[in-house]
Amino acid sequence: MNRTKKLTFSALIAAVCTLVLAGSALLPKVTLSLAAFAGLFPAVVVIVCGYGWAIGASAVAGALALLLLPEKTAGVWFLFFFGHYPIWKLLIESWQAKEEMPLWGWILKVLGFSACMALLYWLFGSLFAAAIPFAFAEYTFGPYILLIALAICFVMYDMAFSILIGWFRVKVLPKLK
User: Fold this and answer.
1) Which listed site, 8, 35, 87, 163, has its alpha carbon 20 to 30 Å from 57?
2) Long-range Cβ contact pairs of 160-168 (< 8 A, separation 24 or more)
3) Closest CA to 69 of 21, 11, 117
4) For residue range 88-109, what is the model confidence (pLDDT) as tens digits?
5) Mean per-residue pLDDT for 11-38?
6) What is the CATH number of the domain that holds 94?
7) What pTM does this model have?
8) Is the dihedral of CA 86, 1, 9, 168 positive or negative?
């Protein structure tokens, strides 16, 4: 695929991500789910075009979401985690396959997730209160319990994400080429 096609494909994926994130203005109760769904698309760019193009598409989608959308919550979730997660997930899994170290791959992914969530919680604690139905701020160990609960959800998301990537590679990718 030449550079023009890669640029066009990446721009279209960035537009699709922004459109999915715009759904949070219409459906405010599923903001986190829409950000997670929009996070699937940068993985497609990694597989089809490469890591650099995926970083650009993810950054553009996050910036457009923050600049254009009236509801910024989905854009913040996308920018802080779901937008770049597919990029480093596929990078870690390719390293993991070469080195045959599955445990280290999981450790790196959970540590990366924890770092992103800790930074997001530190900067935007109110997003957690909006996304999670009960308040953890009143409890002494609330943020830690929240981080553990989110890590469990992350592991399930990661497994489902891997299944979808496998499906994409088997069913859709041959039709794109």
Assistant:
1) 163
2) 161/40, 161/43, 161/86, 161/89, 162/93, 164/40, 165/43, 165/47, 165/90, 168/43, 168/44, 168/47
3) 21
4) 999 999 888 888 777 888 899 9
5) 93
6) 1.10.1760
7) 0.83
8) negative
39-79 confidence digits (pLDDT tens): 999 999 999 999 999 999 999 999 999 999 998 889 998 99
Q: How far is CA 26 from the centre of its chain?
A: 20
Instruction: Please give, one letter per residue, the 3-state secondary structure of the chain.
Output: CCHHHHHHHHHHHHHHHHHHHHHHHHCHHHHHHHHHHHCCHHHHHHHHCCHHHHHHHHHHHHHHHHHHCCCCHHHHHHHHHHCCHHHHHHHHHHHHHHHCCHHHHHHHHHHHHHHHHHHHHHHCHHHHHHHCCCCCCCCCCHHHHHHHHHHHHHHHHHHHHHHHHHHHHHHHHHHHC
CA 135 to chain centre: 24
State which amino acid sits at residue 172. V
User: By residue range, what is the domain housing residue 102?
Assistant: 3-176
CA distance 36 to 129: 17
User: What is the token pair recorded at 79?
Assistant: 């920018």
Cα–Cα separations (whole angstroms), residue 115 to 36, 44, 71, 123, 127:
17, 24, 25, 12, 16
